[in-house]
Amino acid sequence: MNHVIRDARIDDLPAIVAMLADDELGRTREDTHNLEPYAEAFRQIDGDTRNRILVAESDGAVVGCFQISFVRGLSRRGAMRALIEGVRVAAEGRGRGIGEAMMRHAVSMAKAEGCALVQLTSDKSRTRAHAFYERLGFKKSHEGFKLEL
Fold first, then answer.
1. Measuring CA to CA, how many Å separate 117 from each of 51, 96, 108, 113, 142?
2. Could you tell me the sign of the dihedral formed by the alpha carbons of 62, 84, 82, 138, in that order?
3. What is the CA radius of gyration of the chain?
4. For residue 86, which of 137, 149, 25 has the smallest C-alpha distance?
5. What's the rounded Cα separation, in Å, for the pair 7 and 65?
6. What phi, psi does 135 have (nearest 5°)?
7. Which distant-in-sequence residues (6+ apart) come within 8 Å of 61 by Cβ?
8. Is the per-residue pLDDT at 128 higher than 70?
9. Using one digit for the tens of pLDDT, what is the confidence trace for 20-64?
10. 8: closest CA among 31, 34, 41?
11. pLDDT tens, 60-109?
12. Which of 38, 74, 97, 143 has its CA 20 to 30 A from that of 10?
């Protein structure tokens, strides 16, 4: 199956937010009825050359999304790293290679930017996602922490 991965456009927001909201965690965090906060965030991300939101499109429909950020750090001799967040595939598109295509695209982008590594986090409850990332070569190397504000 052929999937096109492209930069997201503002008119993709309804589909992106719907994917973010379409699971047990997203239902409590996202608001598909008020897209203005997402539009404001999109405009800020879109204007930042070190951040990109991408979508996967299949047969003209947005079926996947992710955000990639490029961050320079002091560790690893000042290495650049790619951070991947908000990875989602629409329910009807799962199992069709869309997630794998998106992650391979993200890794290619990271290589093109000269990144030394790609990292992402996944909620502990998303065990199927963990198996997916491990199958693609990602390693569980750290314990993550967050503080809700």
1. 16, 26, 11, 11, 14
2. negative
3. 15
4. 25
5. 9
6. -60, -30
7. 15, 90
8. yes
9. 998 777 777 888 899 999 999 999 999 899 999 999 999 889 999
10. 41
11. 899 999 999 999 999 999 999 999 999 999 988 888 889 999 999 999 99
12. 97
Sign of the Cα torsion 61, 62, 64, 70 reads: positive
DSSP for the chain, please give it: ---EEEE--GGGHHHHHHHHHSSTTHHHH--TT--HHHHHHHHHHHT-TTEEEEEEEETTEEEEEEEEEEEE-SHHHH-EEEEEEEEEE-GGGTTTTHHHHHHHHHHHHHHHTT-SEEEE---TT-HHHHHHHHHTT------------
What are the angstrom distances between the C-alpha of 25 and each of 22, 100, 119?
8, 22, 21
As given in the structure block, the two tokens for residue 77 are: 């001799």
